[in-house]
Amino acid sequence: MEVAVELDAVRFGWPGADSTAIDIEAMRIASGEKLFLRGPSGSGKTTLLSLIGGIVTPDAGRVAVDGVDLAALSGRARDRFRAERIGFIFQQFNLLPFLSLSENVQLGCRFSTVRRARATADGRSLAAETERLLKALRLPSENAHRRRALALSVGQQQRVAVARALIGRPALVIADEPTSALDADARHAFLDLLLAEVEAVGATLLLVSHDDALAARFD
Fold this sequence. Notes:
By secondary structure, this protein is an alpha/beta fold. The chain has eight helices and eight strands, in the order βββαββαβαααααβαβ. A hairpin with a 2-residue loop joins β4 and β5 (68-69). The chain is globular and about 50 Å long.
């Protein structure tokens, strides 16, 4: 089985900190696997995601995504790699208020011609692929090019963030506490949509949460 994420003897500490934030001897995530990662606040979950996303590099050891050693890339090359192959769903969504719903979804394709090419690979336009994702995630697609994303409900904004992460079929989707603002019913409905769409695009999913109730849905 192909490996999507691989960590070997990885250690990392934030400058000025008294202790090591991450110390992992070995970790493997298979391609297509859906991994649930739980831990209390301050345990290093977001730091680990930053290492896997190439936002920071380890003090020692190797972090590889899709077989590429991230530390071997220059900062600019890591930015390009992240834009092309990794979709992020942030806890605070990070939608841009001055962009429309459609423009927020298409943001990754503005930074990566590779993502844009994959989004339109089967002959549909970028607008058509955006509409497909919006409908799949039960979001309003009518006038999506005019409607401001921040005018939507919290749950809808969260699904816009998912559509943005998934457009262009990234190999890896990283979700950092994506259900923290939702009630129990909304959390499970959101997870249904996320898992279905991740499977549809064939992505690997790494989801971080402190909510044990979600764990049973993962590999």
